Description:
The complex is a heterodimer of chains A (about 180) and B (about 350). By secondary structure, chain A is α/β, with parallel strands linked by helices. Helix content of chain A is about 35%, strand content about 25%. Chain A has a seven-stranded mixed sheet with strand order 2-3-4-1-5-6-7, sandwiched between helices. With about 350 residues, chain B is α/β, with parallel strands linked by helices. Chain B is built from twelve helices and 16 strands. In chain B, the strands form five sheets. Chain B has a five-stranded parallel sheet, covered by helices on one side. In chain B, strands 12-9-10-11-13 form a five-stranded antiparallel sheet. A two-stranded antiparallel sheet of chain B has the order 1-7. In chain B, helix 1 (about 20-35) links the parallel strand 2 (about 15) and strand 3 (about 45). In chain B, helix 1 (about 20-35) packs across helix 4 (about 105-125), helix 6 runs antiparallel to helix 8 and helix 8 (about 230-240) runs antiparallel to helix 11 (about 295-310). The interface of A and B includes residues 26, 61, 63 and 151 of A.
Amino acid sequence: MNAQNRIKFVFTGSVGAGKTTAIKTISEVDPILTETKASEASVVKRKSTTTVAMDYGEMTLEDGNKLYLYGTPGQRRFDFMCHILTQGALGLVVLINNSYQDPFSELDYFLNLNAAFLQTSAAVIGITHYDESMHPSIDDYYRILEERGDPWPIVHVDARSANDIQILLNILLATLEYA
Amino acid sequence: MTVATDLSEKSFLTIKPIGFNEQERIKFASILNLAERRLDKPWQLTEAAESDFYLLPEHLKLLRGKDNKLTSLPLQKCIFYTNKNTHAGYHELLVDKNKVPSLKALVELFNNLSAAETVLEQKAAETTITNIEIPADGERQTEANYFDPERGFLGILLSNADGIKEYILKTSDADDNIYVDRKNKLYYYNKSLENLEPFFSEYCTPSTHNISEQQLQELISCENLKAGTLRSLLWFGAFISSKGKLIKGHDENAIVRLKRWPDINLPGSRKLIKLAAFMQSNSVDLNTIQQRTHIPVEQIYDFFNACKIIDLIEYSQQIDVHNKQLDDSRRQLYAMIEKRLNASN
Lengths: 179, 345
């Protein structure tokens, strides 16, 4: 089975939003992480290392098939990876770090980047670092989505919590089933 | 039925034991007698049909809702015997294995109840209303079939009081404080919301104090208070208080849609993820939601009420069902993924 035909969810979002951590948290195998020293100036400010190709984890389903979890690189120069990874994906998890200066722009950016994919699939938006800063609030994010005309659910999550990431994926599944 | 009552004249409270044998009545009367000097207001046993409070054995708690006579008793007027502190949202009187009430528990409970009664009396006196609507038995039962968000702690939170409020919630063994800042639409509490569950019984009326912004800031650091949105508190309060009954004034045939998701991190909401997804994608009545999702109607009502309270529900004139066509293999795949995800819990 090639990457495009795999049963997979893709995690995308801003640098430092917790994509790598989220995959690590629920993957049943040691995830393959392609982190390296950050080079983009905006990224260096936020964290010392960042994903350059993709993150990869997996979960085994009861019929033996694997559910693959891919994380896209956060640096903008690797945006092309997003299009490659989302091909054939079931759905998209967008993670946004709420402690960043302009998280709305980040949300806007990643929804626009994946607009073609989201015409036929679904997304769920996870707001991380919400315990550090409740501003903007979840209500504020919903207002942004309303302006865009996007129906995606938003939930604040701790990327280190397996329970939170499972909830996020359960929401994505329910959205795929009904929306 | 309307009766004229002047509440300000009441100098004692009456209590009527129901479902006790003679020996148990004597035990209760003895403890009440012993407690007399420590009670803020005198309490008298009565056999009259109407009483301020009704004392009931623990097992009758389970029969409420099944026995019409018991259902007609207002829950906020019922005191149940209990041999453990359950904090189940009822007024409970701790008794030992021989069904002898604890003197300390009786004094605390009865003083709390008389204080709450006094507040109610004062409110009634302030508004100079002397006519109280007492519903006939039939009306009272109908009343018990819907959820009235204006009652109890939730009703207080929904009122338009300004400023920062401290609410002191009482249990039989401790006080609990929660602070609400309406201006910033936040609440502050040092525990998880589940701990508020007993207080969201529709009849719990906390004592309320105004506090300044500076006092609030001091309390936040002293008591390690964590902030949450007022909307979350209201959602949770309505979800817990509903108890499977539809909110007052809602026509169950009305066509509704969920405008957006509530906070799925709130206690109780996680098991209703599919319901939220369905309600957001379809404009239908509540019965149709039940038929399509197979979720128990009581859970649908609790979820709907909570979402309605915080204005997440929109009404529509037309049914709009989004019939997503999923083939069996896709459905099976989703089911397998869900099973795998939830197996990790």
